[in-house]
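Quarterly update from the structural biology core.
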Amino acid sequence: MVFADKGTIGATGSSGNNQATLALTTATTNIAAGDLVVLVIADDNIATADGADNVVASISDTTANVYQRAASFTNGQGASQAGATVDIWYCNATVARNTGSVITTTFTNATLSDATGVTGRAFTKAGGFNAALEGTNSPATLANDAADPGALDYTSANIECLRVRGIAAEVGNNTNLTATASWTAWANGNSATTGTTAEMCARAEHRILTATTASSNPTYVAADCASAYVAFKEVAVPQAGPRGAFIWL
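Predicted structure, tokenized:
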């Protein structure tokens, strides 16, 4: 069972008011059937307190591919749209998607979605396996106020995992995230590349390894940040046996 990084599928964002959706046009990397697709979305917060805040209602790509939420976390700052929310979603692709295809994020509250960003990446995995969240304590979360995103870790079983940290930062710039040592930074998803702190930036990094822990502590900029950290493992897909019974490989 081996995850492997295929590369970015693209990143984008929007500063338009009252956004019902955000469309990511895939670039650079084709998505094959059997790949794992992971998306990190940054949005204005709805909840006013730190904690789970499901600002994303759904993600779709006009095929049979199904996207699931892995994590959602808000840095609330005491008022809606005063902080940041990060969502991590994933898909075990069953239908290939060439570059130039569209993946659409639909937001829960368009009125409060005035700055959004998304970044995505594709990974291969072993044939006959799907990706699933590892552990029962997922996700690990962190709020940083007017500060660089701090150190964050997640404890898993001692198995190979794809570890992903997503960050939503309330800041308007195109500054690259400098990845933690041995981690890989993702493409920048920005609502705007310059502007006020009312803009939103999606940042992420990942690492594939066998271990129980792996601290994420990238270097970015001082901002109100919301972080979520999840680990994915591979699980065998049940196969149809005689008379439709399912067997496990």
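Residues 109 and 243 are 46 Å apart (CA to CA).
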